[in-house]
Write a structure and sequence with these properties.
The complex is a heterodimer of chains A (312) and B (356). Chain A is mainly α. Chain A contains twelve helices and two strands; from the N terminus they run H-H-H-H-H-H-H-H-E-E-H-H-H-H. In chain A, helix 4 packs across helix 5, helix 4 packs antiparallel against helix 6 and helix 4 runs parallel beside helix 8. Chain A is globular, with a radius of gyration of 25 Å. Classes of the chains: A mainly alpha (312), B alpha/beta (356). Bound molecules: adenosine-5'-triphosphate and magnesium ion.
């Protein structure tokens, strides 16, 4: 082997040997199936190193801080906190924060799930393909060749990773603020039973995972919108616009027949994880709706993207 | 055609006579698709690297951008792809790279059909299409790392070395750590070229590669292209700089309004247009009269130069002798070779306006 290399190098000194060397390099190219994940790694690094991504995460991290401080100030005045979570759907987690900082996690998730979290997902998902097309980098990824299906799957996986990271950022920020400002300890479930702090922490993690999974539908929708246009801004705006529209329609009583098919309809069902025993019906419906959206809009995105003329 | 099975069987050596690459049909002579990529040799059997047949693209707006293109790019050539603005060069390249679907016709790159075989073909192709496109928020080096990671056949263990080599080849080593949004036009262009050179390639497709480069940069790129060509890489190059094409290309094709006007060896293209006789003299009037007497047509006087078409049946030495005999003081006498530019203008017309 080393002899062969020596011969090869000797040959390379003469011009004639060069072509042989290039050919050698081409033929020697063995491909490992693992390399295909290089794109996912690159995508994750690229996404999470962007200033914009970090800004979105910073905004999400700020929400629990603001809620925590607001609750602290209000109770510091001696008044009691008003009951009822935001959006009416959330149970009275907020009134329990002063007794147990862990409730700030539930409150923060209930506060960010209707708008801040899906908006952040809409930005990331909407920009996924359209942003690359807009910058022209899409054509170079495709001739690399990233492969259209592979690229789309990578983008979707990255968006879902962002869903998870964004939710965890809210949860961890809330837990930190809750621990700093309020006491921690055993807690009372919605059903009135007591559970230990450790189990409460476990439920909080489970809730965070369910909240992250609740965003799968928006992510798929955003990705589909992203394949329709070459403007990242337009895709982001459309996705966020759809999100707001759906949220509004979900409040109109006359539409109750179709509301169960809105991706946001069962979002606040995560609170059912704080019941004893856990009430699964709406949780399952929520996950079902998310899977349905992922399947429908994922397929639509795939059909569109694999047939699309990339001229940008 | 009949030697082909044998050539395929032993998997080496050139297949058949070179001129079998002829203009019309024989693109189908390339062997089975799967085989071609696995061995990396069967592609070398084909003597054409790009072959299109009746390739046509009508954009969604109805614009017929490429119209029945039959392009044949021989292996090992440096192929210049010329044409006025809007003549369909970039559209052709997009179809060859599988970015857009042809409306009609077929394209084969490295012996395999595009866009169907894109995943097998494109790792062997480096491309610069309509200028570079970069992630402004990443450094030049990280841009290359990202593009390399997108290629599933690129070995991550050698990634950093290959990126460093590519940066070095285009003279960007010192600027590799700088954010790409802070790059100048020429630096971006160089980085785009570096991305095309991340792996040893069998084909390089370069759409106006020297756009925005400084003179040193252009020279470097020309030298680079020659070097790559001598290593056996086929280079397909679109450019408006005809000097450049003339300097580096062995073959060329000219497009106008989506149609192929001509293709062939560069020497043949320029030779199609005859050079002009040029006499430098203070006695321009006399010189013009003598040239006309000698049978030269289209005599033009500019300052101290008289130019004319070469007389068809006379030795130029006799023409010179006649001038001297007539008392014309000749400072310079010679034939100005027709440039590719002359040939290009002759083929595509003088008109400046872009066809709609
Ligand atoms: N995305 C598109 N949609 C519709 N028409 C297009 C599109 N891209 C190009 N065209 C049209 O197709 C024709 C060919 O364009 P193309 O970009 O291929 O020209 P070109 O030869 O590369 O020109 P240039 O020398 O200016 O780069 C033009 O008439 C152009 O208007
Ligand atoms: Mg062009």
């Amino acid at each position: 082997m080393s002899q062969a290399e020596a011969v090869e190098q000797g040959g390379a000194i003469e011009g004639a040997g060069k072509a042989g060397k290039v050919r050698e390099a081409r033929e020697a190219r063995k491909v490992s199936p693992l390399w295909t994940f290089g794109l996912l790694r690159s995508e994750l690094l690229t996404t999470f190193r962007r200033w914009r991504t970090l800004a979105l995460l910073a905004v999400l991290a700020a929400v629990p801080i603001l809620v925590g401080i607001a609750v602290k100030i209000e109770t510091g005045d001696g008044g009691s906190t008003g009951g009822g979570g935001p959006q009416g759907g959330g149970p009275a987690f907020i009134s329990q924060i002063t007794n147990n900082g862990l409730f700030l996690v539930f409150t923060a998730l209930a506060a960010t799930l209707p708008f801040f979290l899906p908006m952040a997902i809409g930005v990331i998902a909407g920009d996924a393909i359209a942003g690359e097309a807009n910058a022209g980098t899409l054509r170079y990824l495709l001739v690399a060749p990233a492969g259209r299906t592979r690229l789309l799957l990578t983008k979707y996986a990255t968006t879902m990773a962002f869903c998870l990271v964004a939710t965890l950022v809210v949860a961890v920020s809330a837990l930190t603020v809750g621990a700093l400002l309020f006491p921690l300890g055993d807690l009372t479930t919605i059903s009135g039973t007591r559970i230990s702090f450790a189990e409460g922490l476990g439920r909080a993690l489970l809730i965070a995972l369910v909240v992250a999974a609740s965003l799968i539908g928006v992510a798929a929708l955003g990705l589909f919108v992203s394949t329709l246009t070459n403007s990242g801004i337009a895709a982001m705006a459309t996705t966020v616009g759809l999100l707001i529209t759906i949220q509004i329609l979900d409040q109109i009583p006359q539409l109750h027949a179709i509301q169960p098919y809105f991706f946001s309809h069962y979002w606040l069902s995560f609170a059912d994880l704080m019941r004893e025993p856990v009430y699964w019906d709406d949780l399952v419906k929520n996950l079902g709706i998310q899977a349905l959206y992922a399947a429908v809009f994922g397929s639509a995105a795939w059909a569109r993207f694999t047939a699309k003329d990339v001229t940008a | 055609m009949e030697e082909l099975p044998a050539a395929e069987a032993d998997g080496a050596g050139p297949a058949g006579p070179v001129d079998q690459a002829g203009l019309a049909g024989p693109t189908d002579q390339v062997g089975p698709v799967g085989l071609a990529d696995r061995t990396g040799q069967a592609g070398d059997l084909a003597d054409t690297v790009i072959a299109t047949r009746a390739l046509t693209k009508r954009y969604r707006g109805g614009q017929l951008a490429v119209d029945g293109l039959d392009l044949t790019v021989p292996a090992g050539s440096v192929f210049g792809f010329l044409g006025p603005n809007g003549s369909g060069k970039t559209t052709t390249i997009r179809m060859l790279m599988g970015l857009i679907e042809p409306t009609a016709g077929t394209a084969r790159v490295l012996g395999q059909p595009m866009p169907r075989a894109a995943r097998a073909v494109l790792p062997h192709v480096g491309a610069l299409i309509e200028g570079p496109a970069l992630y402004g928020f990443l450094s030049g080096r990280d841009n290359l790392i990202r593009y390399d990671a997108a290629d599933p056949t690129a070995d991550p263990r050698t990634r950093r070395t290959r990126v460093a080599t590519a940066l070095d080849r285009v003279g960007l080593t010192a600027a590799g750590g700088k954010k790409a949004k802070a790059y100048s036009l020429g630096m971006k262009q160089r980085l785009g070229l570096a991305a095309a050179l991340l792996q040893p390639r069998r084909l390089l497709v370069l759409d106006e590669p020297t756009n925005g480069l400084d003179p040193q940069g252009m020279r470097e790129i020309r030298a680079l292209i020659r070097e790559l060509a001598s290593d056996g890489t086929t280079v397909f190059l679109s450019s408006h700089l005809l000097d450049e094409i003339e300097q580096v290309c062995t073959h060329a094709a000219v497009m106008a309004q989506g149609r192929l006007i001509t293709q062939g060896a560069v020497a043949d293209l320029a030779a199609g247009t005859r050079g002009r006789l040029v006499v430098t003299t203070p006695d321009t009037g006399d010189a013009a009269r003598v040239l006309k007497e000698q049978g030269a047509g289209d005599v033009v006087i500019t300052d101290d130069r008289v130019t004319a078409e070469q007389p068809p049946d006379r030795d130029l030495a006799d023409v010179n002798a006649a001038l001297v005999t007539a008392g014309v003081r000749v400072r310079g006498f010679g034939v100005e070779r027709a440039s590719l530019e002359d040939a290009f203008v002759a083929l595509t017309g003088e008109g400046f306006d872009v066809a709609g």
